[in-house]
Amino acid sequence: MTTSTNVAQIAPGVYRCALPTGFSVGDVYAHLVPDEQGVMVVDAGLGTDESMAALEQGLCDIGCGPDQVHTIVLTHGHADHAGGAAALKDRTGARLIGHPLLLRWLQPTPESMRAEDEFFEQLYRACGLSPLLWEAARVERDSYRQMVRPVSPDGNATEGDIVRGWRVVYTPGHSESHISLWREHDRVMIGGDVCIQHISANALIEPDEECFGRIQSVARFRETFLKLLALKISAILPGHGEPIADPQTLIARRLRDQDARIAQLMAAIGTDECTVWELASTLFPRHLKEITLIVSEVLGHLDFAQTVGQVTSSCDTNGVVRYRLAP
Q1: In this structure, which CATH number among 1.10.1060, 1.20.120, 3.90.1720, 1.10.10 belongs to the domain 111-143+265-325?
Q2: Tell me, what's the pLDDT at 50?
Q3: Are 275 and 320 in contact (CB under 8 A)?
Q4: Maximum Cα–Cα distance for the chain, whole Å?
Q5: CATH dotted code for 7-108+149-256
Q6: What sign does the CA torsion over 35, 38, 40, 46 have?
Q7: Beta-strand (E) ranges in 133-201?
Q8: What distances in angstroms separate CA 287 from CA 197, 283, 291, 298, one per listed residue?
């Protein structure tokens, strides 16, 4: 165990390094995995001066300099995990890898950003949001985009690949670009945001690769949870919060949480027809400024409920979709 205030050994050969974010979720953890050739860093924080200083101090505390970092793995493309990738790659010269869908996060083009904006404008119209709220959500997305400095990945990490002795497990749901690393001999997983002890990671709505349709985020998360249960993981080392010592129990609880959210939505709909925004406003009145989160929470669960036949929907002449309980 190291004595640093922001570094701790949390599994054999794995150290977590706390990096400040300034977000309500608190610190994000980079995981440092030293080996004979140097060190692998899993996730890179926001990339602010404060975050990079904490990461370099963490490397120092485990006896490694930045020049010994040989591999950077990103679990997914969200700013608190990938924002520092460019700075860390510049500082270390390390090989940067992640899922192929990271490219849309790490190297957005004017065309891809325009297509994404059009996707979300149409989505929010369908959800019953006003143009004022569309604009607020666009500003929020732009602010997160600006936190991720463009950088070119050096390679992909896809299901079944081996990275420095760890097997890549594709774990979409929170993000379609999400991967985790699993060490088979002791069944430890470095999990990013796939499962967090103290909060339920949001199943965030994303466009598909061509921005024509949306990812069925809750369904994807459920598939991921079932995959993780089958692996019989001994511990998950998450990007936020404490290590998960009993993953089987927590994952089963997260599946029940999804069922409970769907039941809550069914009760809120009752005998009415409701838009996504009406339901979001009813369920989350204290979080109306967190448009992306609450729309994703409601729409993702409605998508799944519709897939299994619990709700139906109809679209009016203005493109607004309303949901009702299935007969």
Answers
A1: 1.10.10
A2: 96
A3: yes
A4: 64
A5: 3.60.15.10
A6: positive
A7: 155-156, 162-163, 166-170, 179-183, 188-192
A8: 21, 9, 8, 13
Q: What is the pLDDT of residue 2?
A: 43
What's residue 209's pLDDT?
A: 84
Helix (H, G, I), strand (E, B) or coil at 295: helix
Kindly report the number of other CB atoms within 10 A of residue 18's CB atom.
21
Q: How far apart are CA 139 and CA 136, in angstroms?
A: 5
**The tokens of 229 are what?**
């249960």
Q: Kindly state the helix (H) or strand (E) to which residue 238 belongs, with its residue range.
A: strand 235-238
Residue 26: which residues within 8 A CB-CB, separation 6 or more?
240
In this structure, is the dihedral angle defined by the CA atoms of residues 62, 67, 68 and 74, taken in order, positive or negative? positive
Q: What is the mean pLDDT, run by run of 10 residues, along the chain of 327 residues?
A: 72 97 89 97 96 96 96 97 97 97 93 92 95 91 91 97 98 97 98 95 91 92 97 97 97 97 97 97 94 96 97 96 97
Q: Which pair of tokens denotes residue 66? A: 């930045």
Q: Domain residues of the chain, as ranges?
A: 7-108+149-256, 111-143+265-325
Tell me, yes or no, if the pTM score tops 0.90: yes
